[in-house]
Design goal:
Strand order of the largest sheet: 3-2-1-16-17
CATH architecture of the largest domain: Orthogonal Bundle
Strand content: 15-25%
Largest sheet: 5 strands, antiparallel
Radius of gyration: 22 Å
Number of domains: 3
Distance between the termini: 29 Å
Structural class: alpha+beta
CATH class of the largest domain: Mainly Alpha
Shape: globular
Number of strands: 17
CATH topology of the largest domain: Cytochrome-c3 Hydrogenase, chain B
Length: 471
């Protein structure tokens, strides 16, 4: 008798989604899918708004990575208006961006991903949280909290708010960095670098601890995509590189529509982007930390570059495809962000007094592309003569990864579910495949405490056979 397993909601990720798993008469997984179950329509909210309001409005897309939307929006506005921002403004934006990476990567690794492996994937759900880490390794938990706090301090002092910053505007920045804030952040960032090194070591230790997860959490086929600058890792402004079946393809982010298409499935509110030349579904690709390191040839900060070489040596320079390595790549980027922030704070231009240019409203089209912590983020606006938004298109990182997550769920389900037998621990392992991508489905995060989960087994005609509930 065929059965259907539903995991809803998924836990320890931003937003709301579910997984459905279909079993055949032998109890083997025949199919599995990832579904985004909420609809927000944020692009529609933006129509009719004024151009200069967009960098503030779009921060509300997400409470975890608002800086990414803030900066992608500001870049789209700059492009629409045809202006080049001053050097100080660009460096301030980059510094805020590095704060975002420190905060977001530390949050995901220590608070959402690591508890599964530090405490154990089959342990009680209430223990698989940062509280579980605190009980087992108080020093590690305290360092994690400190590291995330440093990232938030950078965002707060550059962006005027730790969450939903407001200082990036069309034409540059609304304020510069004070000498007092520069001095304070320079001291704080010195602590962030060794803490980030600790994260890299912990990631490697945990991956080695669970060798079955290397295969078990999935390895989707397809390409990798991310920004690069002269073949180096780039997070703020660069060329898009796609590495995969068609070799290495590079293109101007402003021409993304010539290369990226979007496919729609009835099972999800989220679109499925793909590389047009390879078509759907062969043209699907992955973005985010693992993809960025796979398309890069070097990292321009010394400690992260050393770790990057170790990463590349793992597969003799070829792309690493196993999902679990997202965690390793994420911590290497965390280290890079800390080093880059220190470099920016040493530059006297960071406190310069030329941080904006005057702009005039005009009609036009603008595109802003940036690397958010979870992957490539695209903002695309069209405005009328009054500077009022006529159309907005946002392609977020999790959309790029949509098919890869879907495939990963099926691979993990087939690996862990045998003879139709399930347990809360097995279902958590399937969730872990999703958490590798750190998907951002909305502004909400279920990061700690008791998240209710109900899993039901249904026969082929829809009759309930069994159920497991986690309160």
């Amino acid at each position: 008798m065929s059965k259907k397993i539903t995991i809803e909601p998924l836990t320890k990720l931003e937003g709301h989604g579910k997984v459905t798993i279909n079993l055949n008469d032998k109890g083997e997984v025949s199919d599995a899918h990832f579904h985004v179950t909420e609809f927000r329509g944020f692009e529609k909210f933006c129509e009719g708004r004024m151009l200069w309001d967009m960098p503030v409005i779009t921060t509300r897309v997400c409470g975890i990575c608002p800086v990414s939307h803030h900066l992608a929006s500001a870049k789209a506005c700059d492009n629409l208006l045809g202006i080049t921002i001053p050097e100080t403004a660009k460096k301030l934006r980059e510094l805020m961006h590095m704060g975002q990476f420190i905060h977001s990567h530390a949050l995901h690794f220590f608070f959402l991903a690591a508890p599964d492996m530090v405490v154990g994937p089959g342990s009680a759900p209430k223990d698989r949280s940062v509280i579980g880490i605190l009980e087992r390794s108080p020093e590690t938990a305290q360092k994690a909290i400190k590291l995330r706090k440093i990232g938030q301090e950078i965002i707060d002092r550059v962006g005027a708010r730790a969450i939903h910053p407001v200082t990036a505007i069309p034409g540059g920045m609304s304020k510069t960095l004070s000498h007092e804030d520069r001095f304070f952040l320079s001291k704080e960032i010195n602590d962030a670098i060794p803490l980030s090194e600790m994260a890299v070591e912990l990631a490697l230790e945990l991956i080695e601890k669970y060798p079955d997860m290397i295969e078990g959490l999935g390895k989707p086929d397809g390409s990798f995509m991310g920004l690069t600058n002269k073949n180096e890792l780039e997070l703020y402004d660069g060329t898009i590189r796609l590495r995969g079946k068609s070799g290495d393809i590079e293109f101007d982010p402003l021409k993304y529509l010539d290369y990226i298409g979007e496919h729609v499935e009835d099972s999800s509110w989220l679109k499925f982007p793909f590389y047009k030349k390879d078509g759907w579904p062969d043209g699907s690709y992955r973005v985010g930390p693992l993809a960025r390191l796979n398309v890069s040839e070097a990292i321009n900060t010394p400690m992260a570059e050393k770790r990057f070489k170790e990463f590349k040596a793992k597969s003799n320079g070829k792309p690493l495809g196993n999902n679990i390595y997202y965690h390793w790549a994420r911590t290497i980027e965390l280290l890079h962000a800390a080093e880059k922030a220190k470099e920016l704070l040493k530059d006297d231009a960071i406190v310069g007094d030329e941080f904006r240019v005057r702009v005039e409203r005009k009609a036009g089209e603008g595109i802003g592309v940036i690397e958010a912590p979870r992957g490539t983020l695209i903002h695309h606006y069209t405005a009328d003569d009054n500077g009022r938004i006529k159309k907005a298109n946002l392609i977020v990182a999790t959309a790029h990864n949509n098919r890869a997550i879907d495939v990963s769920v099926a691979q993990a389900a087939k690996y862990f579910i045998k003879d139709g037998k399930m347990s809360e621990g097995i279902l958590n392992r399937i969730e872990m495949a999703v958490r590798c991508y750190d998907p951002c489905l909305s502004c909400a995060t279920h990061a700690i405490g008791k998240m209710p989960l109900e899993v039901t087994l249904l026969s082929g005609n829809g009759v309930q056979i069994d159920a497991i509930r986690r309160d």
